[in-house]
Amino acid sequence: MSHTTKKLDNSQLELTITIEAKNYQKHLEKAAQRMSERSAVKGFRPGKVPYDVMKKEVGDMKILEEAMGEIVQEAYYDVIIGEQIEAIGMPEIKVEKMAPGNDLVFKATVALLPTVKLPDISKIKIKKHTPTVGEKEMEETLNAIRGMHAKEVVKAGPATGTDKLVLDMEMFIDKVAVEGGQARDYQVYLSENHYIPGFNEQVVGLKKDEEKEFSLTFPTDHYQKHLAGKPVDFKVKIKEVYDRQLPELSDDLAKTLGQESIAKMKELIHNNLLQEAEHKAYQKFEIELLDTMIDQAEFEPIPEVLINAERQKIFYELKHNLEQHNIPIEKYLEDLKKTEEELMRDYRTEAERRAKAALLSRQVAKENGITASEEEINDEVKMMKGVYKDNKEYFEKLDRPEIRETIAVTIQNKKVMKWLGDKVTAEEKK
């Protein structure tokens, strides 16, 4: 294997890496093995197909395409480690030459670690909030538990109290029907907060077969950006009203949930709510601390590769969130009237700030000798292997150098935030 380097603007380096065929043969054999496990080849059991037979079955190029990711990763990290290049983030890879039995050539545009001048940490003061759990939070949680064990009886009168309504609903913006804004047999629980503030108040008091039209403004943080913060007109028709008979908060209810008494159950709920509140308070503290340090630190120009890598992460997080709501990314972009490229451009400010946070954390670690020990990395890998023991492909990847490096960085970042949190002069307040 050979390589050349070329310096680029904005703290970037271009590597051109050439790999001889004999040096990537092992990856071809591994790729053929993986392909044989998911292929049906006459005369052979899955996973037991010889390499030469697999080549005839699918062709050299298909095997090379399957192996390309691992070939590139190994060669890239060999150069980075061998040259002691302080790269950060994922590289941009462009394959230049790719043909079975020939040298492979690819270019990797690498973001180099820019210089970061940290602010005087002793002068930073971040207020910490001491979380509490009030009666309202306890009551809402207990009512939710009672609701899960409620008996529902059809009623003829208006919806009140903790009743449930089943209704048909239509949504409009400027008198145009919202795509996907129609729902049949939609269930509304008056005892629970609706995701659109004010919705429950509009339907309370309605009876079966009654209709109503009203307008509400969607929350500004709603996951469907084409609806977030916009006034929407609703048409609803009530199909049924149910009286929800909630069980009493008693020892009998607690025992059905595995607790010895209602007092013990309340204690457990209180502790869980307090832990959740403490976690949120600490997250808020960390965000404020990082934002303050980023604003006061001095950064060299941020490499474009690093910003693009953060954009990709943001996009992946969005796509994952939409998938959880069964919304295709294509539909989301269509509703926004934007292309993927336009959306990525919108992410620039957030991506640059994320990149700065990563650089700042790394600089704090470097200046203060904060690292992830081999023992800590091994413990994390062991834990993850337990989680992914049934996923052979992912399980095997956990021992690869680049995966261990990612785990090390995650552990190091957590230790940095703990170190910063301890150093910052913070005033406790309720």
CATH superfamily of the largest domain: Trigger factor, C-terminal domain
**Beta-strand content estimate:** 15-25%
Series of H and E elements: EEHHHEEEEHEEEHEEHHEHHHHHHHE
CATH class of the largest domain: Mainly Alpha
What is the total number of structural domains?
3
* Portion of residues within helices: 40-55%
| Mean pLDDT over all positions | 89
- Rough shape? globular
The total strand number stands at 13
Number of helical segments with 4 or more residues: 14
How far apart lie the N and C ends? 61 Å
Query: Which radius of gyration do the C-alpha atoms yield?
Result: 29 Å
Largest sheet, in brief, is: 5 strands, antiparallel
CATH architecture field of the largest domain: Orthogonal Bundle
CATH fold description of the largest domain = Trigger factor, domain 2
* SS class: alpha+beta
pLDDT < 50 stretches: none
Task: Write a concise synopsis of the structure shown.
This protein has 430 residues and is α+β, with helices and mostly antiparallel strands.
